[in-house]
From TrEMBL:
Keywords: Signal
The protein's name in its UniProt record: Late embryogenesis abundant protein LEA-2 subgroup domain-containing protein
Occurrences of domain Late embryogenesis abundant protein LEA-2 subgroup (ranges): 49-129
Residues making up the signal peptide according to the UniProt record: 1-24
Highest taxon in the source lineage: Bacteria
Tagged with keyword Transmembrane helix: no
Stored Pfam families: LEA_2
Keyword Signal found: yes
Amino acid sequence: MHWKRWTALALFALLLAGCSSGPARRVSEPSARIQQLTVRADGAWSVELRIENFSSVPMRFENLDLAVKVADAETGRLRAQPNLSIGPESADVITVAVTPDAAGKFAAADALASGRSLSYSLSGRIDATPDEAKQRSFDLERNGVLTPAPGLPGVLR
């Protein structure tokens, strides 16, 4: 009878030790999208870029280099070194200045003047470091649509 107690206690301790590993640490590809594009008086854009961390661990976003396409042509590049930590399954916003080419300026001005939407795509790379790991580069391909913000001249959301 005494051995049954020791066997049950050993099995319980083994079961308890198996539960101590904690939740799985998953690193998923991050994403980014334009949350707001403001056309400044000089024709340059101020882009509020939403960076999304879909991982179960915090990530530090160090560099990004994304081509912006509107009207099926590359109109500029979003380049930044945000050095921004984003918690697990969270997002944050950075502001990046862009000087678009003439076609990009025209497409944004046309969308604002006519009240129509503006389709865009982002493609490039985001460098991020998962918590307690080494830096990784993630490729990004994202399509989106911006529409004029009512009451906010020069703003697409």
